[in-house]
Design brief:
The complex is a heterodimer. By secondary structure, chain A is mainly alpha-helical. In chain A, 72% of the residues lie in helices and 4% in strands. In chain A, helix 2 runs antiparallel to helix 5. The chains are: A mainly alpha, B mainly alpha.
Chain lengths: 442, 417
């Protein structure tokens, strides 16, 4: 079969449910991405707790590490299967995209599969190896779990970064040619800031979600050392990551301003290219020159407007702007909460006492997840109408198969049931008495 | 070069059939072991599978990613035409993971029964659906293009039904052989015998279905039939049948270790036979050569594969060694070096920690140092552009990690001893 015939077989298709296909993909990401945060950050918390135990002999940290490791494994299991769905969807929903560019971006997923393998192997050894390996060997088996969490997200995000900043190929007759897979994935301009942004977000989300759970206990009057130790680790991690994220976010915004000006214009709904563009805060004032300052660190810089491209090439501005504001707003509040934590922890050597602080912490858990999802909506909806920015439109990528709404509804039900199951397991694990996790012998 | 990835994909699929299949099969046996009196069987199943099931499932992800990278048009033709069974398989995989995670929280037999049911359902759905996908491809029902084949008959046909059913029964068989061997290693002969009976039953059923196979293929997929009844294809088919019979005889004689190897060999041989029967075409009218990505992509994937294997193989060997030598079994004495005296592990980390007495925590100095590095890194990140910015980012992240260790290690003034 000649190459041009193959390409023609993947020509435009009739798909009445493109929007549903996009929503189904978005839903799958929204379920998976909070679990990724736990896959990335939680192993570091668990290994840190175990290390504290070995360093100080304090048994409370051992109990904490053992209990957390079980939660980590249960969340990893759900993360594995929701991640598998995403790889199926690359073929099920977006065959046009994968057929044309699988040979450009696929390497990232091949490498990720190995990363994932290492994580699955060592997470099992770590969790089932308590009391079976020497303490030091056991601690060491936690290290590959942390590293594989980092490399796994690195490889997956390299693909997303390439979709936003495509390079390393040429298109000829609908086919990618002259492909340089390494350069495309790891040499693009988006990889560094996207990886760091997501990685720091993982610590914020895992930290604040855990702190919300134990903060609830604290508010109910439980001040056991176990709860204090859990809060110390989770709140410290989130409190250091949250201010760092402001700096990383600034870096991300400046890169978007240069590489995807239309996406940046959507953040402010900036119709026309403007010198010294202002930024309006919803329900608040319009601050002159702020957008130029944020985007280029120069109050008089010229910001490209939406009118630089035809209307068909613009993303749905309302969604992009709302998610951007949500992410930035929550991120700023979290950084303020983080400052309180760090001040009290370092100056007074304790956890904050104020009931309002703990109420805010309980809110911070779910809010950090909202900010995480809003951030991904900002970058992914902001990339529209392109699946590969400036190269392939999303409508050229979609499947020609029927039944998209049926699949969407089924998957939504399955995910609702999975969510209920996860909540049920976590409540069950938390309700077990602490003694169960103290070694039986001795 | 175009053929190397397809060999690796077939190897990955064979491994997934053997290892992932054994995991799914275990779910089916949970269904046959309901009620109080079979608690030992169910507990054994769970214990034997828990540490390895996730790693066993990654072989599928490996095969998928290799396939869409190295043969993108073939992969997407398959995925778009066979979207229904693939979606069903995906839902089954979610159920498998959920059942595993849920088992961590069960406290009553009734709850456990519900979860077994979920696991068993996934064990039926996923192997059957994936077998049906293979049937659709092998019988030439997937044309090149975006959803160009029939959405129903591409997987609802004689070949798909044959391979789907065979996949379910083979999974059950592989699981029973594995679990019988594992039970005997742990010294529970009663459980081992229970799984031996199950293995023999499943083995005979699998053999009967396989024996009917040639008739189905002759009628439904003549191309595949011809490939498997002549030359190297026939050799593979016969090798698979022989290995299957040998495995069954070994199970009957309670020689589970070699039986595992023979059963795996039967699977590998039939996967190889499929590959031989179908080559050089991957889909009708599309040869492997035409479907393959360019040399640059395949070279990159092979480099990544080799590097990945260098890390993966020792890790996987370590995991399986721990599992198969019973290190994760309950009630095993602690290894050398582990302190059996309660939680005071400090006892075995003696003198080198002498400068850090129990309970000692870091002071303020490391906090300030790490904080300064983080702040400096943040300033460089904020005020500079590439390439200097990378230095700032690295300093900021390393500083933040050090900050975490320093701040989280500070004494908790209110915690008490």
């Amino acid at each position: 079969m000649p190459l041009d015939l193959i390409a023609a077989a993947f020509g435009p298709v009739q798909q009445d449910y493109l929007l549903e296909a996009r929503q189904m993909q978005a839903m799958s990401f929204m379920v998976h991405i909070p679990l990724v945060c736990f896959g990335v950050a939680f192993p570091a918390f668990v290994v840190f707790a175990e290390w504290r135990h070995l360093r100080t002999g304090d048994p409370v940290y051992r109990t904490l590490a053992r209990r957390w490791s079980k939660v980590m494994l249960a969340l990893f299991a759900v993360g594995v299967v929701t991640g598998t769905i995403l790889s199926f969807e690359l073929g099920l929903l977006w065959p046009g995209f994968t057929a044309a560019f699988g040979d450009v971006f696929g390497l990232g997923f091949t490498l990720e599969a190995f990363s994932f393998f290492i994580e699955a192997i060592f997470i099992a050894i770590y969790v089932y190896g308590w009391d079976r390996l020497s303490p030091r060997a056991h601690l060491l088996t936690g290290i590959p779990v942390i590293v594989a969490g980092i490399t796994g997200s690195f490889f997956v995000i390299s693909v997303n970064a390439w979709m936003n900043s495509p390079s390393g190929f040429r298109v000829e007759n609908g086919q990618a040619v002259d492909i340089e897979p390494w350069g495309a994935l790891f040499g693009n301009d988006y990889l560094a800031h996207e990886v760091v942004h997501m990685y720091v977000a993982a610590y914020i989300v895992a930290g604040f979600v855990l702190a919300a759970v134990y903060g609830w206990q604290w508010l109910k009057g439980n001040r056991e050392r176990y709860v204090r130790a859990a809060l110390t680790i989770s709140l410290t991690a989130a409190a250091i990551a949250a201010p760092v994220q402001l700096i990383v976010g600034d870096w991300a915004a400046r890169t978007v301003a240069q590489e995807q000006p239309v996406k940046l214009a959507s953040f402010e709904n900036l119709e026309q290219t403007t010198k010294g563009a202002s930024f309006s805060i919803p329900g608040g004032p319009e601050i002159p020159n702020l957008l130029s300052l944020l985007a280029f660190h120069d109050p008089d810089a010229t910001v490209t407007g939406l009118d630089s491209v035809p209307p068909d090439d613009r993303p749905p501005v309302g969604i992009v702007r709302a998610s951007f504001l949500t992410m930035v707003g929550i991120g700023t509040l979290l950084a303020a909460l983080a400052a309180c934590v760090l001040y009290v922890r370092v100056r007074k050597r304790r956890l904050p006492e104020s009931r309002w602080f703990w109420r805010a912490t309980i809110a911070a858990g779910p809010l950090s997840v909202v900010a995480l999802i809003a951030g991904w909506v900002t970058t992914e909806v902001g990339r529209q109408p392109w699946v590969v920015y400036g190269v392939m439109r999303t409508e050229e990528a979609v499947t020609g198969a029927g039944g998209v709404p049926v699949g969407y509804a089924t998957l939504a039900l399955v995910y609702l049931a999975t969510l209920a199951a996860v909540v049920w397991i976590l409540r069950r694990l938390a309700a077990r008495p602490l003694e169960e996790d103290v070694p039986a012998h001795g | 070069m175009a053929e190397i990835p397809i060999l690796l994909i077939l190897a990955g699929l064979a491994l997934y059939t053997v290892l992932g299949g054994a995991d799914f099969g275990a779910g089916l046996w949970e269904l046959t072991a309901r009620g109080e009196r079979n608690t030992a069987l169910r507990d054994h199943t769970h214990r034997a599978m828990a540490p390895v099931w996730e790693a066993n499932h990654v072989w599928l992800i490996f095969a998928l990613t290799m396939c869409w990278t190295c043969y993108p048009e073939a992969f997407t033709s398959i995925a778009s035409t066979l979207s229904i069974p693939l979606f069903v398989a995906a839902v089954g995989i979610i159920m498998r993971g959920a059942a595993y995670a849920l088992r961590a929280g069960v406290s009553s037999p009734r709850e456990e029964g519900t979860i077994s049911l979920l696991f068993a359902l996934s064990s039926l759905l996923t192997p059957f659906a994936l077998g049906a996908v293979v049937g659709g491809i092998a019988s030439g029902r997937v044309p090149v293009g975006n959803a160009q084949g029939d959405e129903i008959t591409s997987w609802l046909n004689g070949t798909s039904l044959l391979i789907g059913t065979l996949a379910v029964v083979t999974s059950a068989y592989l699981a029973a052989v594995y679990l019988a061997g594992d039970a005997r290693r742990m010294g529970s002969d009663e459980v081992a015998d229970a799984f031996r009976r199950r293995a023999l039953l499943a083995g005979v059923v699998a053999g009967a279905i396989a024996a009917a196979g040639p008739f189905v293929l002759n009628a439904d997929a003549p191309g595949l039939y011809d490939g498997l009844t002549g030359g190297a294809g026939l050799a593979a088919l016969l090798a698979s049948a022989a290995a299957g019979l040998v495995a069954l005889a070994l199970v009957a004689n309670r020689r589970y270790e070699p039986a595992r190897v023979a059963a795996a060999a039967a699977v590998v041989a039939i996967v190889a036979g499929w590959g031989i029967a179908q080559q050089p075409e991957i889909l009708p009218g599309l040869t492997i050569e035409q479907a393959a990505a360019g040399d640059a992509t395949i070279a990159a994937v092979l480099i990544g594969f080799t590097a990945g294997m260098l890390i993966l193989l020792p890790s996987l060997a370590y995991l399986f060694r721990l599992v198969l030598t019973g290190r994760f079994d309950p009630a095993v004495p602690l290894p050398e070096g582990a302190d059996a005296r309660g939680s005071g592990i400090v006892g075995d980390l003696p003198d080198e920690r002498g400068d850090a007495p129990v309970g000692a925590a870091a002071g303020l100095r490391p906090v300030l140092g790490a904080g300064a590095v983080t702040a400096l890194g943040a300033a460089v990140t904020f005020f500079s552009d590439a390439p200097l910015r990378s230095v700032g980012v690295a300093a900021m992240l390393l500083g933040a990690a050090a900050c975490f260790v320093a701040v989280a290690s500070l004494d908790d003034a209110e915690a008490g001893p």
